[in-house]
Amino acid sequence: MLRKILFTLFLILSSVIYSQDTSSGYNNNNDVDNINKTIIDVKASINPMVSHTNIIFESTKKQNIIIKLYSLTKGIVLNRYIKAKIGQNSFLLSRENLKAGMYIYSIQNEKELISKRLVIR
Fold first, then answer.
1. pLDDT tens-digit map of 30-49
2. Which domains does the chain have, with CATH numbers?
């Protein structure tokens, strides 16, 4: 029980920290950190989601990406590997057996991890 509470607290804190990424693109001169980023402009096109949503992001290079979906109560409920191309990429996420609630989705490469909130109705 204590592990579940600690894991849930970790996910909530991680989502608050990582979901505050407000970068608006690779060429933003006001944000020096964007120079080294290869994953930018991450968003879910329909949020809150009812039946499906598109996870959209831009990649500055060809790279392998891991997309994960975390339930706040069950941990990882989806784990997919995709090959990103240069430019805009998208991943269709279908609701399938997911229950209504708040989830965290993350996009990860070998050096970066970006997490955002997703609500399922």
1. 455 567 899 999 999 999 99
2. 2-120 (2.60.40.1930)
